[in-house]
Amino acid sequence: MRLVQAAIAPLLALAMTQPVLAQTAPALPAGAPAAAGARPAGPPMQPQGWTMTVGVAPVFGMAWQGSKDTALSIFPDLRINYKDTLFLSVPDGLGWNAVNADGWKAGPLVKLRFGRNESNGGSPFQITGGSDALIGMG
Question: Of the candidates 126, 101, 121, 97, which has an alpha carbon nearest to the alpha carbon of residue 109?
Fold first, then answer.
């Protein structure tokens, strides 16, 4: 059973990272005018207000650093931003870009660190795999 889980988990992680629906814009014939309202190429526009992104991030790797056992985890990916100044997300924490110029960003940051689970060595987001080698180590 463990061998089956080890074989299926990477395939499941790979399948979950592929886009479900993808659309591409139709190609314009040579010399055709651009669509009305189309922006010329250049640097991306900065967000003007609040933005929110929701997703999941499947991660397949070692159950814990140095382990020979593997695990599959699904991390929530919730991101809330105000312009390019304030941000709150599961992977990046809560922060403020006090300095934001010429591609450089600096400011205070607070992050939540999820500890490991002694019984299987993984995070609270682990869905399969793991290792019991850490039992008794805290």
Answer: 97
For the chain, the structural domain boundaries read 1-16+50-138
pTM: 0.50
C-alpha to C-alpha distance for 61 and 117, rounded to whole angstroms: 16
User: Pick from 22, 36, 106, 121: which is nearest to 70 by CA?
Assistant: 121
The 3-state DSSP class for residue 84 equals coil
What's the pLDDT at 95? Answer: 95
DSSP type of residue 2? H
User: Which residues is 88 bridged to in the sheet?
Assistant: 80, 94
Q: What is the pLDDT of residues 46-91, one digit of tens each?
A: 668 899 999 988 888 887 777 788 888 888 888 999 988 999 998 7
Q: How far apart are CA 53 and CA 62, in angstroms?
A: 28
